Design the sequence.
């Protein structure tokens, strides 16, 4: 009888159909999704660095939104929303000062056709530290693959610690 109870316990613990506990190891499909999302993030920031909005545009859904969370001059915190059109125009304008955003500590969560990527970032303009914060990117899986429908960030200028973690690189580099 003890062996029978032991075997039942092992089956329930292992996730045998009808078991009480789900296993939390990533599936092959989750790993493929995460790799595709990381590739999109890398292409996005490569496009920014190379002033090539044509690299970014296919990654976005129709009507994709940007938002920033921060304080105004009076210290009032708010989210400010905008269309990607202005951002794409700014990215696509050739500039002397390269926009180079280094990201790290990327955490991706997926559930069906929805995914969120949360990451630290340090933004360098023309090789100089500009600001840092956190990006959050929302993705939807469409027939073309994972596409961004919103990208938000926070911004601060006290970035010495983050700049040490995510130093300027000549190319987009997702620090793990």
Sequence:
């Amino acid at each position: 009888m003890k062996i029978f109870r032991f075997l039942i316990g092992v089956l329930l613990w292992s996730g045998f159909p009808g078991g009480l506990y789900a296993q939390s190891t990533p599936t092959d499909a989750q790993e493929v999704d995460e790799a595709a999302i990381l590739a999109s993030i890398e292409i996005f920031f490569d496009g920014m660095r190379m002033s090539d909005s044509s690299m970014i545009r296919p990654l976005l859904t129709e009507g994709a939104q940007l938002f920033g969370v921060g304080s105004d001059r009076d210290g009032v915190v708010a989210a400010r929303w905008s269309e990607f059109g202005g951002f794409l125009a700014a990215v696509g304008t050739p500039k002397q000062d390269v926009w180079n955003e280094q990201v790290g500590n990327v955490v991706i969560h997926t559930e069906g056709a929805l995914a969120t990527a949360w990451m630290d970032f340090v933004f360098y303009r023309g090789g100089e530290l500009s600001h840092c914060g956190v990006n959050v990117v929302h993705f939807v899986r469409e027939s073309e693959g994972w596409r961004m429908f919103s990208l938000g960030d926070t911004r601060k200028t006290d970035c010495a610690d983050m700049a040490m973690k995510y130093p300027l690189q000549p190319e987009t580099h997702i620090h793990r």
